[in-house]
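Sequence in, structure out. Go.
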Amino acid sequence: MTVDPGIASVLKNWTGLVISLAVVIASFAVTVILGLCLLPALKWLQLRQHAYEDAPQSHQRKSGTPTMGGLLFLVPLAIFVLYSGRQWIEFTAFFFLVLACAAIGFLDDYVSVAHGRNRGIRARTKLFGTALVAVIFLRWLSQSDAPFARDMLFRAGNYALIAPHWLWLLLGIVAITGTIHAVNLTDGLDGLATGTSIFPLTVLLLLAFQFYDATVIFALLATLGACLGFLVFNHYPAKMFMGDTGSLALGALLSGAAILTGEMLLLILIGGVFVAEALTVIIQVAYFKRTGKRIFRMSPLHHHFELGGWPETKVTARFWLASAICSALGLAIVR
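Output:
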């Protein structure tokens, strides 16, 4: 990947930790300040989430909580990625991916609020939209001269798994759309998707440092700070939800960063919680259609544990721990 040598060299020497911490802290501060302004605005505009009719009974109290808080992720991301240097091809494509998916999520949130119930745009429409964005992103990168990790599915040390370009494109579409919707499914408890995302984001950040991917470095640093800042409003009991605006943007950022760092397959492991959440939905729906019975009490997986008597905070804490373990295993493999 093309890298501004000045920024890359600074990030790799002893001052790199100071700069990284400064970016995370600044992003955290920007997110909290913007959140303090956004929260009353969302309340005034009546942009409030409505609980699913089929959700656990304990979720009905969440109805009326302001949503679309995922807008907070975009401002620090734009500020600090613009500062990252001259990687305009990667920056433009990467930010397009995140912004376009956030826009799809925003539309879904708006339709849901306008209809007065937790039903936004159709799932197929959302899937098609995110897949189309993924195709544009991948083709955009493919036609550039930027030497990013093109056609690379996995790398560890001096080893790299390279795929035919058509297969890389196909798997890239699956990785992006799958991650986006898996993160969206995980966003069902206070702080769950936000906290779970922090650990794979950290792994991708460390790999970006290793491979001098400056655009990805600043994007991930900014997003880590934004996630920590958003938890100020999203921890239990949540004062604000990220909505699809945030969950689709987070999923796009995770998958885009994995592709740009050549770690598309690693995303399956470090994003293990998201994979599990998505698989339980797929298995539940397929099995119910075939037999009329359910394997899980409710899907996604976090609802299964809720209906098993676990408090919401316990489910969230255990899922954060599982995400940390998956991410640590992933980092151990590639290091």
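Check: The radius of gyration is 19 Å. The chain has 13 helices and two strands.
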